[in-house]
Each structure stands twice: as C-alpha cells, then as structure tokens.
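For this section, I looked closely at the sequence of one protein beside the tokens encoding its backbone, which the following lines show:
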Amino acid sequence: MTALPQRLAGVVLTLGSVFMIDLNQINPLHQLWLPLMLAAGAYLMTQSIMAVAIACGTLAFTHINSASPFWVESIAYPSIVFACLTVIAMTLIQRFRKRIKATHDERWARRQERQQD
C-alpha cells in the first residue's frame, strides 16, 4: 500500500466535505470551496490527476451560467473548466511523449533491420 497517509487524508477530506456541503446554499463556501476540497480529497485517494480533472471540468461545465450575477457561476466555473482542460492536455502530451520515448529504441532497431535486408 503506497501513499497510505495521503490516501487516508483524502478520505478524511472527502468525508468532511461531503458531510458539510449543502448545494442549496448560494455562497462561495458551499458552491466553490467545499467542492474544491472534495476534488482535493478525491485526488489524494485516487492519486489520479486526470480522473479528478475530467470530473471537475465536467461538473463545472454543467454549472456555468455566464448571465448569473453570482461570481462563482459566471467566473469561477469557467476558470475551473479552463484549468481542467489545461491539466488534461498537459497530461496527454506528457503521456504521449513518454510513450514515444519508450518505444524509440525499438522503432529505431526495426528501421535498421529493414535497411539491412
């Protein structure tokens, strides 16, 4: 079991957020900060930034209301979507580069083998 202390902290953070959150209250604590704490707890539990970014981005996108006078819906949620898309793009680029680097030697050996034949 790797990262057990972080995972336990994630469980505590997630449960604390779940038991405190009331999405019917229109204030930044319940509409922004507690959901972000929930996301941080989910990350600590899963150790997967991609999963958390996909979930947070999707939820923030569904709650965007650009005509709302409440700044969380009109400014914070679009910012969260942008941040999540950036995290997803950077993660995919890093994974792609890692995959290319990992298979580079094998591909080079195959090319050399073809040239010799």
